[in-house]
Design a protein that fits this description.
The complex is a heterodimer of chains A (95) and B (376). By secondary structure, chain A is of the alpha+beta class. Chain A contains two helices and seven strands. Chain B has 376 residues and is mainly beta. The chains are: A alpha+beta (95), B mainly beta (376).
Chain lengths: 95, 376
């Protein structure tokens, strides 16, 4: 079955068993929300770093689909097709 | 690990945790940082039942808040798989910051309280690995009228009586709330505490109480450092009276009480609201030994000029005899006194803003931080 890959920043990889890429099988388009639920199902600490208890993506976590940040698309409802990559990058905010 | 007793001083800052250790509370060695680039707004050192567990509230601007604990003085850190503090789904709320981690009495081992943002109180019965939301306070009808101080909407003080039934909580803003049934129900108790910044300066609730602490030896006696105003209550917060006379300023964030002796408390005054600095740029701790009737200025060993403030949890006492007093500034300096504030020595300088300090006698000593163990 085709897969969708989620690329993690290095700082989060220890929370995913050292993996830099998590994959989910998908034979059609899925939402980012489904994808995060699926790839982080076995990594609850990783899941908490990305989204809070209400399911909202944390303010300084940016998720890109095909180079576009999902807040400028349909948020967690943004669809991802098999073969595409989802990139998670922390914002450059801070001081 | 060494087996001799030492003192540990945990220093939570805007950008990580440092651990200082000392065999005698005179000379200190510093290790860290742990959790580099995460703020540490709360620390609890639980020494009940002969063990030492350091609990820390950790908050990353990117990755959110969580609670870690260490049972080996910071050599390794553990985070409960599903998180120690998580708002239940029906609340539609998310944890922003853990402001307070408070191990309960010796007689209730395993019980740890937490005060959080959004304003909420939590209780753990397994040593701080899992906390349950206090529904009585969460569902309080006043909730919609509580506000946020500059640092956030915080339940920052939790004072539990020895019987476990009487609990006082202070929040900014909202004031003091009291429960007489172990936290099931809560009532505001702010009579006498001014809220000069509100149209009615004497409301039932809404005060900006910065910190409360209980007198260790007088049942029913509490002290409060308010947003302007220093107060004492002798009747379990039914009423408050000013004890600010004799202080150079009645503003500040810190309120500490002696671990055993009646009538002894410490504050660190700041001139405010226009100048949130030590009065005249002269940093000093002030101690009362007569429940606020008089105050003694204590500045031996402190710098001649200091323009940084001291935040509410950036000060603590230990349980030794004589009691140790510790505090840190937003300029990253940390000071310790082994004689109840008579003389201070500098433990650390040039750290990030100090948000929280806690000290205790422990078995063993912290080892140099393993940063990798505390990432993200």
């Amino acid at each position: 079955m085709p897969e969708i890959s989620v690329l993690l920043p290095s700082v989060l990889q220890p929370l995913a068993g050292g993996q830099s890429i998590l994959t989910a099988p998908a034979d059609g388009a899925v939402t980012v929300q489904w994808l995060l639920d699926t790839v982080a199902a076995n990594f609850p600490a990783l899941s908490r770093r990305l989204r809070d208890e209400t399911g909202a993506v944390r303010r300084y976590v940016n998720i890109y689909v095909n180079g576009n940040e999902i807040r400028r698309l349909q948020g967690l409802g943004t669809e991802v097709a098999p073969g595409q990559e989802v990139l998670i990058i922390q914002s450059v905010a801070g001081g | 690990m060494a087996t001799a007793e030492s003192y540990v001083l945990a220093i939570g800052t805007k950008k990580g945790l440092w651990l200082a250790s000392s065999p005698d509370r005179q000379s200190w060695s510093l290790s860290g940082p742990h959790f580099l680039m995460s703020e540490i707004p709360s620390i609890g050192i639980d020494t009940r039942e002969g063990r030492t567990r350091i609990l820390v509230g950790v908050r990353s601007e990117h990755w959110g808040p969580t609670v870690f604990h260490s049972d080996d003085l910071g050599e390794t850190w553990n985070e409960p798989e599903n998180g120690a503090i998580r708002f239940p789904e029906d609340t539609d709320a998310a944890l922003e910051r853990v402001w307070q981690i408070h191990p309960d009495a010796e007689s209730r081992p395993g019980v740890v309280w937490a005060g959080c943002e959004p304003i909420s109180v939590w209780k753990s019965t397994d040593g701080g690995e899992h906390f349950e939301l206090n529904r009585g306070l969460w569902d309080h009808p006043h909730r919609s009228e509580w506000g946020a101080g500059y640092g956030g909407a915080a339940a920052h003080s939790i004072v539990v009586n020895p019987d476990g039934e009487k609990v006082h909580v202070a929040m900014s803003t909202g004031g003091v709330y009291r429960s007489l049934d172990g936290g099931t129900s809560w009532e505001p108790r702010n009579k006498g505490i001014s809220a000069y910044f509100m149209p009615d300066p004497n409301p039932e609730f809404g005060q900006c109480v910065h910190k409360i602490a209980a007198d260790a030896a007088v049942d029913g006696r509490l002290y409060a450092q308010n947003h302007h105003g220093v107060y004492r209550s002798d009747d379990d917060a039914e009423s408050w009276e000013s004890i600010a006379e004799g202080l150079p300023a009645d503003f500040g964030f810190v309120m500490l009480t002696h671990p055993r002796r009646a009538g002894t408390a410490w504050v660190i005054p700041l001139k405010a609201d226009g100048e949130r600095i030590p009065p005249g740029g002269k940093l000093a701790v002030h101690r009362t030994d007569d429940a606020g009737a008089s105050w003694k200025r204590l500045d031996a060993g402190l710098p001649g000029a200091e323009f940084n403030s001291v935040l509410r949890d950036a000060a603590c006492v230990d349980a030794a005899e004589p009691a140790g007093v510790y505090f840190g500034t937003r300029g990253g300096s940390v000071y310790a006194s082994a004689d109840e504030g008579e003389h201070f020595t500098e433990v650390a300088s040039h750290l990030p803003d100090v948000l929280c300090v806690r000290a205790a006698a422990v078995v063993g000593a912290p080892v140099p931080a393993a940063q990798a163990a505390a990432s993200a």
